[in-house]
Amino acid sequence: SRSIGLLHWAAIAWAAGEPLSVEDVEVAPPKAHEVRIQIHHTGVCHTDAYTLSGKDPEGAFPIVLGHEGAGVVESVGEGVTSVKPGDYVIALYTPECRECKFCKSGKTNLCGKIRATQGKGVMPDGTTRFKARGKDILHFMGTSTFSQYTVVADISVVAVTPKIATDRACLLGCGITTGYGAAVETAKVEEGSNVAVFGVGCVGLSVVQGAVRNKAGMIIAVDVNDGKEAWARKFGATHFVNPSKLQGKTIQEHLIEMTDGGCDYTFDCTGNVGVMRAALEACHKGWGESIVIGVAAAGQEISTRPFQLVTGRVWKGCAFGGIKGRTQLPGLVDDYLTGKLKVDEFITHREPLANINKAFEEMKAGDCVRCVVSM
Ligand code: NAD
Ligand code: AHE
Ligand code: ZN
């Protein structure tokens, strides 16, 4: 089937703010250094909703969204050596070429090789592999997992053991790895350190999980939804605070009191710029670090008194937790298989592809951690 375009279903976002349309799409064969994947399962992440809303400056339409997917390699283009047909794989929106300045720096997981074309919604050669209703359809985050078949660059995919089912593996493609990596890889939370996690959805619960792994001291979950307390405690949070119920003081003042001077590490997992400020200001003077994970809409900006930084607090951020997908995801899969990493627990909802709009609605309701879509 290498030379023919496959006709299958995809959820197409024809325009910002409109429901996705599940319809036939032609998926062209992979060109050189490309891989065609049969997606078995995909998660739905808030970033998909963010781009669909029209607030993402990089969002263009029509497009096949989705970036948290796992499946099986169907065919590969010329020159592909890292995966072969039949391999079980996870798609990587943060690729890893191992050749660019970024990959070689040893300082970041951000790979520069295809970032420009990825941001424009096209493959590295500037064209798209999707066609529907006679029109070219754009790719999303180099992955486009809301399609039964997708084509990705060979640096945007990692093979993993089939021992992990694809309905679990897909969640390592974004939410779980993002939060866990932020705690373990980016912040490198130390034993006994006090941590506050703002927003305990899939990403925040994963930060909690990483903090537990690194033996943090206090792990304070902060969420405006009281229903999240039980979830946070289940993942190992030691405290829970609902900031909307504090009387006469700010959440940063409250956390500073609770921790005798401020947290060693804080994480924003909300995408709210006011929360990002609170998270920075809740850090301990002299050394506290705040990690921005949430994605804020175009036009939003963060602010604080520069004095907060002058006095030693550090503001940083990460994408995909700072994890290098091809190098590190197989290890995370092993951790899952040996019971060291929770994954199953994140799945609260399931939908078939035909009901993907329902999956978006469920994601926005307060009782959903992750909805997994079967293709
Ligand atoms: P989610 O909606 O499941 O979780 C967000 C949580 O924040 C919810 O529990 C909500 O009640 C809580 N919240 C909202 N406003 C709050 C406030 N003012 N104070 C405290 N809590 C508040 O979302 P998610 O899937 O966990 O994603 C979280 C964010 O991370 C999103 O912005 C998403 O786009 C972003 N994200 C970033 C990366 C990355 O690589 N940087 C990867 C994945 C997701
Ligand atoms: N296109 C958006 C930015 C969105 C964004 O920051 N995406 C994260 C991943 S979120 C996953 O759920 C990311 O990978 N960022 C690094 C990068 O290179 O995009 C905008 O605002 O322009
Ligand atoms: Zn995501």
UniProtKB/TrEMBL annotation:
Q: Nucleotidyltransferase: present as a keyword of the record?
A: no
EC assignment: the record states 1.1.1.284
What reaction(s) does this enzyme catalyze? a primary alcohol + NAD(+) = an aldehyde + NADH + H(+); S-(hydroxymethyl)glutathione + NADP(+) = S-formylglutathione + NADPH + H(+); S-(hydroxymethyl)glutathione + NAD(+) = S-formylglutathione + NADH + H(+); S-nitrosoglutathione + NADH + H(+) = S-(hydroxysulfenamide)glutathione + NAD(+)
Tell me the InterPro entries matching this sequence.
ADH-like_C (IPR013149), ADH-like_N (IPR013154), ADH_3 (IPR014183), ADH_Zn_CS (IPR002328), GroES-like_sf (IPR011032), NAD(P)-bd_dom_sf (IPR036291)
* Any GO molecular function: alcohol dehydrogenase (NAD+) activity
Pfam families per the record? ADH_N (PF08240), ADH_zinc_N (PF00107)
> Domain of life, per the record?
Eukaryota
Q: Which UniProt keywords apply?
A: Metal-binding, NAD, Oxidoreductase, Zinc
Extract the CDD domains matched here. alcohol_DH_class_III (cd08300)
- GO CC terms in record: cytosol
Alcohol dehydrogenase-like N-terminal domain sequence ranges = 32-157
Which terms under GO biological process does the entry name? formaldehyde catabolic process
Cofactors needed by this protein, per the record, are: Zn(2+)
Domain Alcohol dehydrogenase-like C-terminal: from-to ranges: 203-329
Do you know which Gene3D superfamilies this protein is assigned to?
Medium-chain alcohol dehydrogenases, catalytic domain (3.90.180.10), NAD(P)-binding Rossmann-like Domain (3.40.50.720)
The family note in this entry says: Belongs to the zinc-containing alcohol dehydrogenase family. Class-III subfamily.
What name is this protein filed under?
A: S-(hydroxymethyl)glutathione dehydrogenase
Species whose genome carries this gene:
Penicillium diatomitis
